[in-house]
Structure formats: C-alpha cells, structure tokens
Records
---
Amino acid sequence: MNFEFSGKIWYWRGPAPWYFVTVPEKECREIKAMSTFVTYGWGMIPATVQIGRTKYKTSLWPKDGAYIVPIKASVRKAEKIDTDDTITVRLAIG
C-alpha cells in the first residue's frame, strides 16, 4: 500500500534523539487497518520511505494512536531539511 502526504519535521530529545514526521490521521487509520498483516512486533510497520530524491527502508513507530516516520541523519543532510521544515513523504508499506 502506498501513501503520499506532507508534514512538519519534529525533534524528539529522548535518550536516543531522533527526527520524525507524523503520519496524518486518515493515513494512520488505513495503516492501522492493515497493521496485523505487516507488523513484526511492538506495532512497528516496515516501510520504504522517499523524501525528495532520497529513498530508504525504515519502520513506522506507533505513538499516541498515530504513526511516526523516523528521518535519518543521512536523509536530512542529503535533502537539506531540518526541524520545522514541511516535507512531502512517500510511503510504501510492507
């Protein structure tokens, strides 16, 4: 299943800091409906992500009833993006 959406990058300071973009509510509902078929545990959903010209494999993380997409440092650097930038994300689930 494929999705495309725009969202703002945010930073999580936790013990292992990461940058994320939150999947919009509509897409989260669709992903959740298929989650039991694709999750490998803990609610993690494998996905291929494309931001700009950069494509990478990762997993969507469940958070507060939604899903969040981790944005790798190499992707942020290649695409020249940072916290609070609005980006377009293409997701391929599975």
---
Amino acid sequence: MSKRDYYEILAVQKNASEAEIKKAFKRLAMKHHPDRNQDNQDAAEEKFKEGKEAYDILSDSQKRAAYDQFGHAGVEQSAGMGGAGAGAGSFSDVFGDVFGDIFGGGGGGHGGQRVYRGADLRYNLELDLEEAVRGSSVNIRVPTYVGCDECDGSGAKKGTKPTTCSTCGGQGQVRMQQGFFSLQQTCPRCHGTGKMIADPCGKCKGQGRLQKNKTLAVKVPAGVDNGDRIRLSGEGEAGENGGPSGDLYVQISVREHKIFQRDGSDLYCDVPIGIAAASLGGELEVPTLNGRVKLKIPAETQTGKMFRLRGKGVKSVRASSTGDLMCRVTIETPVNLTKEQKALLEQFDTSLKEDKKNHSPKASSWLSGVKKFFEDMKS
C-alpha cells in the first residue's frame, strides 16, 4: 500500500513554516485522541501514527529537504538508522512531548534542573518639581534578595555540593502515566530544583540567596513626570538555581509645588494683583524655575486673564522643545480696610455708578439679562 503525501496528511502547504507544521500536528493529534474515538480506538491510533511520521520528517530540515526532492524514497533510507519508520512511536509516548508546554512541561522536560528568573521589583521615588525638571542623581535603598556569598548561591554548606535528586534524575520534573496521557509535573521531592541538599548553608538556610537592603544610584533624566518609570536591568531579585535576576522599576512621583502646577510641558501659576493694578495696568515680577521675569499687565485686565511666557515651562523627557509658563491673573479684593479706606472706596464706587454701563459693561449686561428674565416670567 503506497504512503500518503506527508503534507496532505497534516493538511498544510509545501511552503508551510515549522510553526504551522507543529500547529497542524497538534490539531491532528487532538482530533485522533483515543478518548474522542471510543468506538474505534485502533483506527484513531493508526491515524495518529501516520501524522506523527509526517511530523517527524517535515519538522526536521534535512529530512524535509530529502523528502521534497525524492519523496518517500528519500527518507526511507534513513529508516533503519532511526528515521521515519523507527520514530513513529505510540500516542502515549509522544503526547507529553508535543503538548508538554500545555501541561507545564515547557522549559524543564528535556534539559537539566529548572532555573527561575528573579522577581521584578518596584520602587516609588518622590521628587520635587525642580528635581524632575532638571534631572538629578538619587541614592535609594531597596530591600531585595541577593545571591548568598557564603555558598555562591548553591544553598549547600561551604565545602559541600548539592546532589542530584534521585526521584527526577535532576530534571526537576517527573512524568506520570494516566491512561493514554503522559503528563509532566514538578518533582514533589526537590520541588523542581533537580537537586537535593544534605548539608544546607548556615547563612542562607539552603535557599541560595539572602534578603538585604541594596543601595543603588538612580540617574533621573531631566523632564520626567508623574507615572514615568526608570528601568534598572538586573537590579531586581536574584534568580533561583542560577537563574537571571529580575529588573527594578523606579516609579516617579512628583510632589505638589507651592507655586506651579505642571501639565505636560507647560507650567501654570496664579498671579494675584490688586484692583488698582488691574485697572491702571503696570509691570510686576513673576517667578519661573530659572529666576524672575517681568510680566506686563495691560490696563483694564480682568480676573482669569491668562498670560503666556514662551519657553519658560518644562522640556519633557519625550519632547525636543520647551513648554510655556501660563500666568493666570486673579484680582484680589482688599481686606481689613480702615474707616478712611472704606470711605474712599464708597466715594469711588459712587463715582462709577454715574456711568455704570461705561465702567462696568459686564455687570450692566448681566443685570439687564436678569431683569428681562423676570419680566418674561411674569408675562
């Protein structure tokens, strides 16, 4: 009986990638799972073996090239040396290998003991606005796990070495057979480390790492803002079993400023002025992060008026240009007046009422609108 085309068996094109071939085989294996074919398990296993043979050839670049050039004849020569004919195997033999990543076998089933990357850490760093805008260098103390210097991270007492776990043979995993399933799970004896420590290190108690405070210098770039993160690679917790260390993420939090509020690259500040200055105009000094500057107030300035000082804001860490300083004028009503000041103010107010529409157009317009509102309600 002639063999079917391997590409046809897996239902893939001849230019299919390795990932597509593996995905197709997984799909075929699940389709012909014996539990899904209780009424015809023998036929299902034959279909699986056929698919496994096709997968063995097409997942091997050299065998695939020979098959593409010479067909089945190109690969049958290697059958006696462990090629297609010898490697088909049973469903239970290969199911765990192909689907090991689904059942927790990925990364530890075919190599030595499992290694674990250290955890990433987060540190909240509070800065003044000036530090965030100009940049700074800050020393921080971070509680973390570091490799034990007494045992060099092995966990075993100095002068001794860990031994290979006899249960898993140093793999960190054991294979369990459950019917047609061959599943891998973490070794219950060594807990996935692949080793046993008969005489643990007295300093780290066999853990291979210790908790301590680590002092780090953090270079804060100019222009950082609330929520920005600085990544320090490899400064997180030490890994286990020789695994790589995690990273440290420094989260920036900028303290509230007494004068300025930041919005992106722009700064905002409130500038209180008196009635006389708002009415007559003038010039006053306002603060910036780089010193004082003159701000010209035109006559008849109203409260809420915004003045823009270009280039007096912040150069964000993500921008090439510097923002602006926005000065918002608020007119301050005088308080704690003397009798003489009150009298002068009343005299001044009386003089304004003689031509209210000219001196207070907004108030006059508002009063007219109120009057019309009540008249409309009566009609």
---
Amino acid sequence: MEFYHFVEQTIQLDNREERARVEHFLANHSLRLEADVDYSIAIYRQGMVVATGSLAGNVLKCIAVDPEYEGRGIAGRVVSRLVAEAYSRGLLHLFIYTKPENAGKFSQLGFYKIIEVPAGVVLMENRPDGITAYLKQLKKYKRSANMVASIVVNCNPFTKGHQYLIEKAARACELLHLFVVWEDRSVFPPEVRYQLVKDGIKHLPNVEVHKGKDYIISNVTFPTYFIKSPDEAVKTQSLLDIKIFAKFIAPALGIKRRYVGTEPDCPVTGRYNQTMKTVLPGYGIEVIELPRLSIKGVVVSASQVRKHLRQKELHLVKELVPEITYNFLRSKDADSILEKIGNEAGGGLIGAKKNRNGRHT
C-alpha cells in the first residue's frame, strides 16, 4: 500500500475559512454541516480535506471520507477522535445515525444497531446492551391494567395545555405512562421540565412519569444532514421515533394506546401525528388525538408562553401556565432561564420578573 502522510486538525467552527473547507467537502459528498455541531475535526493530505467528522452532544455526525482514501483506516481515526473528545466531556453513551450501507463500517468501530428505517437511516449506539438496559429499568413500572396508555411531552415549559391533555388521557385509561423528552436543547433544562411535570400532575395517581433519555427522540436532535428533502427528513425522523416506541418501549410497559394533542399550527408535528396514526395500529397501538386547550380563543402552547416571557408579559404567562410553573418562573431558580429567553430576543428581562413579594421590579 502506498504511504500517505495525513494531518489531523480540530476545526475552529467560528473560523469562516476553516468551516467553509469542511462545508465544501461535505457538500461534495451530499452532506451538510448541521447547525448544532459543537466539535469538528478534519483530516488533511497536502492541504486538502480528505475526511471529516463532528459531534453534536452525544451524537456523532457529518462523517465523510474521500472515496480515494477509503480502506486506509481514516474513518476509524475520525471516529476514535470523536469518541475520545466525547469521553473527555463525560459523554459515555454515544449514538450514530447513518445510511444503511455504512452500518457495517460502524459496527467494526464498536457501534451496535438499534433500529433501521427503510427510508434510509440506521440508528446505532456504542453499547451492546444500551436499549436493553433502558427497557429493563422501564419494566419495573409495568403493571397489569385493562388499558395502558402513553403520552410523550417536551413541556418547554409545562403549561395548562399539557396539564389538560394529561388529565383527559388519565381519566380515559387505567394507567398512563408519561415520557418527558430528555434532550438538553430546550430553553428549560430537562430536570426542570421533568420536575414541573411531576409536580403538576401529582394529583393523578394513575400516571407514571418517565425520563425519555436517549430513546425518545425529538425533531431537534435528529440529524438530517444526509437527507436531501426537508419533507423526507420529517417522514424519516417520525418513522424512526415511532418504530423505537412501537418495537421496544410499548411492549416493555404493555402500552396499547397513545394520546396526542391536535396540532393546528406546526406542520412538522402534524405530520408526526399523522404518521403515528398510520404506523402504530400495525403494532396493536391505538392513537387518540385530543383537541388542545384554548383560552380566550387561542390554543395554549409553550411557544406562546416563551413569547410572552420575551416580551415581559408575565401577567399573560400566568393565564397559560399552572401555578407550579408560575411559581417557578418567579423563583430565583428561574433567573438564568429567563435571562436566556431575554437574550434570544436581543434584550434582557429586566422588569419582567417579580420580586419575592410578588411586585413587579
């Protein structure tokens, strides 16, 4: 084999020139450098990029090798470097989304297939018993019941709309398993969202609240960098998430019904709901779509709550959220979150919060 000298370099993502080189290389391989990438490396030969790979949290993505240099261990070098970086950050459970034709390569590099969607995606993880261990924990909550149902929520933050949907579903079934999406990409951190949900539905004795962890997938974390059409990306993500739920999570808990709220405003969520209605019955799971709560003719949503927070309209927020959420927003624990929301709008929330006596300050 001819000897080649390769140079490895960490890409400074805020450096336009370095980033452009990687983006151009990926574009030549029908890939994109996604916005959520927080670490990238490139392998160079004679000043030209011949391979690259990136991290977004605990997901390895945007990995490509020039076909001319395949079979020289470069893919393994890229993956090893990304894994080492993730481990240095304390991220030990890692995932790769890849095309089916590349699954064998990643299997040789220590990743294990979880599930494949015919549309062209394989989800893999670096633990041979990853999802098995998660299901083992879930099965501790399996109970005999005439009707076991489920809801998946993000709650960014927990609103009266979420509370209404959960209460309606809880009244219609004997046992309800409620999963809180665990990605750390929402303004409200996962532990905060989880605790608000738990506190907000503790009056419902037949509801079990679970941390979604890595197997309840959201639109934000799903990488679409190798799917050309946005519509196809939504379809593929929906199928992947729904198949994981139907094949693994529902059987572990005996779930036979899934509740969702109607989605009049978001086409992506509407498409997701429609895919559920098509796919889940084939696994013996009924899908029930419930009308969402409206207040003064407006559908209650977490995005509307965040909008009011950005605009310093805490009195309007109070109309849309349960007392548990409102009290949290007025507490010191919410300061950093409110500051982040304010910064998204280009300004702080000075004057939006109330002091501990309840007066505007």
---
Amino acid sequence: MDEITINIVIADKSYRLTVARSDEEKVRKAAALINERIKSYSAHYAFKDMQDLLSMTALQFATSTVKYESELAYRDQNLGQQLNDLNSLLGEQ
C-alpha cells in the first residue's frame, strides 16, 4: 500500500495523518468540509467553545450518514424486488 503523511487542520488544530495516497484528496476534502461547517455554525449559532461547534458538526454528519444509509437500504430492497419482477417476466417468455 502506497502511504503518505499529510498535515490537515481541523478547528484550528493541526493533525499529522498517514493515509493511502489514493485517499489524500478525499481526506483533505473532508477536513475542508468540516472546517466549512464549523465556520457556518460559528456564524449562525451561539456557542461556548470549540467543542460545541465540533459536536454540532459531528451530529450533522452523523445524521446525514444515517439518512443516506436508510435511503440506500430502501433503494437496494426496491431494486431487488424490481429485478425479481423482471426475472419473473422473462421466465414467463
């Protein structure tokens, strides 16, 4: 596995990470997205400290993940049913 060491900054704190070279862009994009959300929350909501902003950001991302997992499960189930229906139709021919 081709790994590299990168530095990213999240919430004004630097982190040194070792990632697969193929994942570097994804990790940097994810860190940028986190920082954008933190900035947005800090501009629109009252907060006591950075932990409040990080918690709101984590909750937002976790909620999105749960939503997308639910939608994916529904699509998979629906697609499976449609494939079974098509297979039945083809079997009749």
